[in-house]
Specification:
Largest sheet: none
Distance between the termini: 67 Å
Radius of gyration: 24 Å
């Protein structure tokens, strides 16, 4: 009876650990997707700029820090 109870506890703990790992992986994936979406927004906002305009804007931002 004790072995059965211990086996059940191990099984429940394993499922809980697996769900936790999956939740962390899902959070990481969501974070990556959001980063990619933001990068696409930035790319679409700057597509019309020339390389020189982008360089000057970057220099302006870096100079302001």
């Amino acid at each position: 009876m004790i072995r059965l109870l211990l086996a059940a506890l191990v099984a429940v703990g394993s499922v809980a650990a697996w769900q936790y790992i999956r939740a962390e992986q899902l959070a990481e994936i969501v974070g990556r997707v959001r980063t990619l979406e933001r990068q696409q927004e930035i790319d679409s906002e700057t597509d019309h700029l020339t390389d020189d305009e982008l360089r000057r804007a970057l220099e302006h931002v870096l100079g302001a820090e």
